[in-house]
Structures are given as C-alpha cells and as structure tokens.
Amino acid sequence: MPIYGDLGNKLVQHAKRTQNLAHLPPYQTELVRAVTREVRELDKDVASLLEPYQGSFDPSADQATACTLLVNHLSMRRNKRCLLAYHRTRTDKLEELVWSGADPLDLAGLQAGAVNDAAAADGGESSSLSPQEEDYFRQYGDLLAAYKGQWTDIDLTGSLEPPRDLFIDVRVLKDAGEIQTEYGAINLTKNSQFYVRQGDVERLIAQGYLQKLG
Amino acid sequence: MSYYDIDSILTDAEKIPCTFQLDVPDLGYLDNTPTQPLKAGTRVNLPLWLAEMLVIANSGDIEGKPFVTFDLPPGLGNDVVQALKADPRAVPLRDQSPHFYGLAARLMELLDEKELATVLRKTFVVRASEIALHARKVGGLGQHKGKSAAEEGCNLGIGGAGEDFLRGLDESERKLFRKAHDGAKSGKEWMEGIKKH
C-alpha cells in the first residue's frame, strides 16, 4: 500500500531526469492531477477529524488525533513542495530555451499539438508542454523581447563566442524565406549555400535554419 | 539547500526505521494495515520528511514524549561505520544510499553522535581527494595519447581500477567529480586556445 507522498516523489524523480536532458520531456498531467487530488483528500480528512472538536482541539489531550493531523499536514506540505519543485524545474528549462533562441522544432510541435489534439492523443507529434507552460513560454519570450528592445545596438542573446571571421559559409537546412542584409536580399531556399556576414544570420543558425560550414 | 532543490527533496524521501510510541487508530496504513489501528511499538520505515517532524513534535514539553523514536538506518549502521574507519575509499556509499551525505547530515542534526560525525567528516575528506585525483586523471589522458584519447576518456568516464570507486560515489560526490573534471578540462582547453593565437 503506497503511503501519501509516494506520487509526489515520482514527480520529483521526473524533475531529476529533466535536469540532465537537453529537451523538455512530456508534462506529467496525470501525475500532477493525482498529487493534487491526494492533497484535497488529505485536507478533507483533516476537516472531518477536526469537526467534532468545533474549533477547540487540544493536542495534548488527544495525542493520537494530534499525531494523525500532523502526518496529514506533513503529507500535504510534502506534496506541495514536490509539485512546486517539479514545475520550477520545467519553467527554468523553458526560460533557458527562450534565451537560447527557442528550438523551432519544439515550437512546431507546440502548434501541431494545439491544432489537432486528436493526433496528440494518439501519441504522435504532440506538445510536451502543458497549456499553462505554453503560455509561460510565450509570455516569457515577450518579456525578453521587450527587455532586449531597450538596447538596439547590442544583441543580448547573441553568441558569446568572439567571431573569427566577419563572413562565413552557410548551408540552408530549411527554407527560411528572404532576408534583408546590407548587401541586398538573399533568398534562403533549402540546400543552397551562401557566403554571408555572420551577424546577419546568427539567429537563423541558432534556430537551426542554417548550418555553418568550415 | 533551497526549497526547490531536487536532490534535497529526494534526500527527504530516504527512509529511516522508526518506532511509534503511541497507539494511533487512523495511521494503520503506514504499516500496510489500513483497517487496523497502529499500535505503540510498531516499527515502520518512514521517509525523512515525515519522521523528522514526528520525532521533534512534542519534545518541547516537559511531560510530552515524541510520537516516534528512530534508529540509524543500516547505511549508517555499525558495519558501515567500521568499514569507513578502516578505509573510506573501499566503501561504495551509493549502495548505502544515493544521498548518503545528505541523509547523514540530516540525522546528525537530530542526534548527538560526535564519533559518527567525526568518521563521516574524515570519510568525506579522504574520498574528496581521491575524487579529485580521478577527475584530473581523465583530463590528463589526452596529454599523453593525443586528442582522440582525451575524448575517449571523457566519454567512458574512466576505465580500470577507479571504475568501482567512481560507481560507488553518492550523488553529491558525483557532482564534485563532474565539477573537478569539467574544471580540469576547461583549463586545458583554455591553455590550448592560447597557444593557437
């Protein structure tokens, strides 16, 4: 028979695994729901235990009840900590993703998940984020954009590696449309190759549209 | 130790043997018998997050006795302590508990066991220097055998005699090893980068 808090522990073990992964594994909707349900049950237990006392419970007079209440309370507190830590681990990861220019594959997954939930249920290409996390991701992205907007001549999310050359060879991995550069417009079609200024395409490299050669 | 620290939460889940000091009708489920009351004197393994407070509760009163008393878990038992006294490096701490030091530190707060604390402190120091040694060896491989060997060394972690020792590291020691190893490696990379320019 599992004791209270076992489910929360599973959640934290998921979080532990998440810490060592590059991507974000699927959100544990069921587990989170089960843990919150457990908290609600515990709260109900506490309420019914205290009911006969009408607000005048004396712990030293009834040790057994006091002990049960303490165990229930601790279990709820434990579950709360597990839930918060699980979500915090994931939001930390999300913020990291936003700062690194967000994996577009992940974004594509998000949209696919939103459009056809039916396919998602089949275990196909679906979002690994909860709807709340998607909101968080989007809004954090907006925040970061607003913050970055204060400095037009510095790209805060740019590469920290000092460039060796001003110009680089790149190959286009995915169609990225037309971009404007100082030297005119370039049409980035798949499998083509260009010699461009690094500063112009840094974002596209980070997002996986272009691959740096050499 | 932050509230959100995953390892700290997992440490909290480590179980220690406890004995209930009073009858509690509603807690039978802790002893796998949800329909029966929990009798005084019942021994159950409780996670630290539960045991700690049950031990502390009521201890403030003069007459009050704690709800439960606890014993040291087998991982900190006499056998292990004797082995640690003989040679800290020979004991795979991970087999005792993946969060060996975290658990030990928490129990030391509840107990007054000066001798055990001394053994643990010495264990940490001796093992830490051994860890540092292994971590540097991995980084050093490349200098003798060229770059590919260095990369190989990183992927494998480490081969040969040290393998058993490294497998027995507890979670905090693993972190220590990784930090020492990454530090040595980045140091080396930086030195090589300088030479190029």
TrEMBL record, chain A:
Which stretches are transmembrane?
none
Q: What do the Gene Ontology cellular component annotations say?
A: GINS complex
Q: Which UniProt keywords apply?
A: DNA replication, Nucleus
**Compartments where located:** Nucleus
Highest taxon listed in the record's lineage: Eukaryota
Q: Would the keyword Protein transport be found if you checked this record's keyword annotation?
A: no
Domain GINS subunit: where? Answer: 50-151
Q: Which family does it belong to?
A: Belongs to the GINS1/PSF1 family.
Provide the protein name: DNA replication complex GINS protein PSF1
Automatic annotation (TrEMBL), chain B:
- Show the InterPro entries listed in the entry: GINS_A, GINS_bundle-like_dom_sf, GINS_Psf3, GINS_Psf3_sf, PSF3_N
Localization recorded for this chain is: Nucleus
The main place the protein resides is: nucleus
- How the protein assembles, per its UniProt entry? Component of the GINS complex.
Q: Which family does it belong to?
A: Belongs to the GINS3/PSF3 family.
Known role: The GINS complex plays an essential role in the initiation of DNA replication.
Name of the protein in question: DNA replication complex GINS protein PSF3
User: In which organism is this protein found?
Assistant: Achaetomium macrosporum
